[in-house]
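The aim of this short unit is practical: by the end, you should be able to scan a pair of folded records and say something sensible about each. We start with the first protein, listed as its amino acid sequence and then its structure tokens.
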Amino acid sequence: MSKTENRQAIAAEVRAAAGRAGMKQADLVRLTSISRQSLSRKWNEETPFMVDELIEIARALNIPASRLLPVAEQSIAA
């Protein structure tokens, strides 16, 4: 996968995981140290998430951080 495809897949998984937890961007901003503007750019696939941000989001969603990395799971399974 290309860097763009990775960014898109990770952002899609963050959005999906937040939705499953009943959370929106504003909830994640409140529960993490990620600014509203930064999270919006990442949520909309304009910029990539950093590893530490994914860890914070996973903690806020009470899920393993690996769940936000579907790309890595696909690579391992291949």
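Turning to the second protein, read its sequence before its tokens, just as you did above.
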Amino acid sequence: MEWIYLEEITDEKITYNYFPEGKEKFGIISLMRKSGERVIDKLCESDKFKTYAFQALRCLEEYQKKNEFPEKGLIMWY
């Protein structure tokens, strides 16, 4: 599980901070709104295999489809 928090929305991209397992260390991810390109701006040091970053990016793609960008979200899988 992880928490994501909205950092910034522009016409070009959506940026969120992601917190693996709800811990203090975090990474930063973005989704380019026009191209759909996924970007890991800063990989969280505890996310060595990028599992949490990719789960969060998948969530951003869903937000983009709905054009709804919550201030925070909880992502759970297993």
